[in-house]
Description:
Chain A is mainly beta.
Amino acid sequence: KNQVEQSPQSLIILEGKNCTLQCNYTVSPFSNLRWYKQDTGRGPVSLTIMTFSENTKSNGRYTATLDADTKQSSLHITASQLSDSASYICVVRTPISGGYNKLIFGAGTRLAVHP
Amino acid sequence: NAGVTQTPKFQVLKTGQSMTLQCAQDMNHNSMYWYRQDPGMGLRLIYYSASEGTTDKGEVPNGYNVSRLNKREFSLRLESAAPSQTSVYFCASSEGRTGELFFGEGSRLTVL
């Protein structure tokens, strides 16, 4: 069964500290993996996309990794800021019949950054 | 840059009432989607429209109908609301190549 599991469910860190969020998937075949950030009361916004051939990609203080062999991805946040408080959602894209694609969503990790 | 606009942002209904959630995008995307988001669960696809004139069921279509009015607009209708439909609803559109979703701000619906 195609699934995306994220851990931890929630996380509290102090401002300025680093943290790493995990995403494990059993989705096959694989097209790409995307991390979204969802601020409270807002819609998700894409942070980064990882394709099969990419191991690491950075977007400012956010660094995503992908290990396609073990089907794991991580999102590392460096020097956290209060504005990083949000839910982070991992989404895996898989091709299906007819040339279409299906998106499999993780339940998200809720991050709270405290001063 | 409006992106994806949904209305209303909040709505309270009584069981059995009907309502329509409106969504419009100005990015010229072909594909549009309706999702619901419930606590502790990932976003679940209700209906999607791969292009103007087509609509298809997602994972949780029961109790909902959709209309792709034109390329810009995609509406979601609840004909007879039930408490189980209390949720936050998100409309999204996507560009085809990488499948990045662009979401609206969400519509919080409570059914009493």
